[in-house]
Amino acid sequence: MDTFAALAHGMAVAVQPMNLLYALIGVFLGTAVGVLPGIGPALTVALLLPVTYKLDPGGSLIMFAGIYYGGMYGGSTTAILINTPGESASMATALEGNKMAKAGRGGPALATSAIGSFVAGTIATIGLAFLAPWLVDFAVRFGPEDYFALMCVAFITVSATFGDSPIRGLTSLFIGLTLGLVGIDKLTGQARLAFGVPELLDGVEVTTLAVGLFAVGEALYVASRRHHTEEKLEPVRGSLWMTKEDWKRSWKPWLRGTMFGFPIGALPAGGAEIPTFLSYSTEKRLTKHPEEFGKGAIEGVAGPEAANNASAAGTLVPLLTLGLPTSATAAMMLAGFQQYGLNPGPLLFAERPDLVWGLIASLFIANCMLLVLNLPLVGLWVRLLAIPQPWLYAGILVFATMGTIAAKPSVVELSMLAGFGVLGFLMRRFDFPIAPVVVGLILGPIAESQLRRALAISLGDPMTLLQSPISATLLGIALVALLAPFVLKGMGRFKANED
């Protein structure tokens, strides 16, 4: 009953005119950037962080959540029309969606994508509203050693699963952890890694790092790959609406996709890619029309798109209740919370219930807005694809620079932005994942603080980390997550040698 009361209070916050405007801006921007290949919701939130520095925290976070939901939907438009997923989570959608578009059924493909996103997003948001308080009740029992172990799980799972190589992921993580050491040590008051630069005594700004790695790095990377073949736009032919048969073949995949997306999205490093491909393979096995798969089966669009959007709500569960980001966009949203001096976790539900429940309630509104916006505006999203890339990325560079100057006018800050941009370019060039760097910078100082607290309470005894059942279990999970990719790789090589 408490959840219903909290949700009703959150809805009263979410329907305030300014918050409705923020939600509308968020879903519109999210869909627009999701449509543009290579510019995902993480990059958009990173760009907007410095711009929203002095805005209302609740409204800004509602806008960021709208961008996340909109971006997850928008990636399907390019996946269906030109076989270019705007987001990695839309890759499964492209398999059948583009075949449908080429067969003149782009309208029903876009329609099942939009309605599936709405259904899955609504069910998953209800799951978030009822699961979050239960998880908060569990999390308030955590001691400092348990929180440190939880951070270790986040570090290992994020770094080992982002990208193709666990070694590269761990390298990215350690870059972030090193950047997290910059500034004044809160325990001793000594400067660390500041190299005599006064501006570094406050530490590295998360917004500067995020904008540099995501926006500037992406612009440099796209510029380096300038002379690639351009995709041909596929016009939407025929009716945009679904037939009775299409509805019949879509509703079960929508529900099954939701069941895949929400729980996997809520796991540390679950992400959206795994449930979308699981949904696709399940629909391929269960379909009554196996001959259509590979030629444009509507189930192959409905299921993955539902899983995609349900996972977006799933990632908000660990973010809001434990302060753990399980995707690049969630890491950017965590940076947004910290920008306003807010720390997501069990205490946030007690200290700022209006903000947390207003954010959760706004997701229902954002879902309705997405449905109303996206079907009529398909033509507009297609035209966005015609923006020349040099104009687009030049605009992103200008916006990134202006935003950084507005948040913290300093030559050192601009130099760091340029430096992080080059680092982001090199990491993309050599296939190093970027999200672990941001996660390391944000969670590194928190993990260090919790470890020091645990050791201070136990008078320096490191065995305190294993004496708590929760801590011991989480450290065991972290160890398994660290070793599993290497063991699986070794077994694969052994089997290949045997063959």
TrEMBL record:
Keyword Amino-acid biosynthesis: no
Keyword Membrane: yes
The entry's keywords: Membrane, Transmembrane, Transmembrane helix
Sequence ranges assigned to domain DUF112 in this UniProt record: 20-438
InterPro entries: DUF112_TM (IPR002823)
Any Pfam family: TctA
Transmembrane segments: 20-49, 61-82, 109-135, 147-163, 170-188, 200-223, 355-379, 391-409, 430-447, 467-488
Coiled-coil segments on the chain, per record: none
Name under which the protein is recorded: Tripartite tricarboxylate transporter permease
Source species of the chain: Bradyrhizobium xenonodulans
